[in-house]
């Protein structure tokens, strides 16, 4: 399980750095073309708001920093705390977007739901406790 936790933390850190870095340091580009090759998911959902996009970028960067901390200081409690943070964010983010797909093409809607589902799944994986070795039964 530790290997799966490590992979979930590493991938969540990369995700947070990619999304957060792009949104915070290039908000207009993020608005116009995120996620890039899969289409443009942000600009179709309302007018540009630099403050909001930079705040989202900062939040993703904070989650990425926490995930990187979890990679360095590995602990069961740390995995659960990071899992809780990523799962709460992921579930609410997924819920919002699942209710606001009408303005998107079918391909973009499917891509967005898959991407957000993977992000949510990373948090859920971190909530799974490690298996404990069973104590041998006393004779």
Q: How does this model look, in words?
A:
By secondary structure, the protein is mostly helical. It has one domain (2-127). Helix content is 71%, strand content 3%. It has five helices and two strands, in the order ααββααα. The chain has helices spanning 2-25, 27-33, 50-72, 76-98, 106-127, and strands spanning 35-36, 39-40. Strands 1-2 form a two-stranded antiparallel ribbon. Helix 2 crosses helix 3 (50-72) and helix 3 runs antiparallel to helix 4. The chain is elongated and about 65 Å long. The protein starts with a helix and ends in a 12-residue tail after the last helix. The model has no long low-confidence stretch (mean pLDDT 91).
Helix content percent band: over 70%
Q: DSSP strand (E) fraction?
A: under 5%
Gap from first CA to last CA: 30 Å
- Poorly predicted spans: none
Largest sheet: 2 strands, antiparallel
Form type: elongated
Mean pLDDT: 91
Number of continuous helical runs: 5
- Total strands: the figure is 2
Radius of gyration: 17 Å
Identify the strand order in the major beta sheet.
1-2
Q: What's the structural domain tally? A: 1
């Amino acid at each position: 399980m530790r290997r799966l936790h490590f992979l979930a933390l590493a991938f969540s850190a990369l995700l947070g750095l990619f999304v957060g870095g792009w949104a915070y340091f290039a908000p207009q580009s993020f608005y116009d073309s995120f996620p890039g090759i899969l289409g443009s998911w942000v600009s179709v959902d309302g007018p540009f708001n630099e403050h909001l996009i930079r705040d989202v970028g900062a939040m993703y960067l904070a989650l990425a920093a926490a995930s990187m901390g979890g990679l360095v200081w590995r602990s069961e409690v740390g995995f659960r705390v990071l899992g809780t943070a990523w799962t709460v964010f992921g579930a609410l983010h997924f819920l919002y977007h699942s209710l606001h797909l009408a303005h998107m093409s079918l391909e973009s809607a499917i891509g967005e739901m898959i991407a957000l589902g993977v992000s949510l799944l990373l948090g859920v994986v971190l909530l799974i406790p490690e298996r404990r070795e069973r104590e041998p039964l006393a004779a």
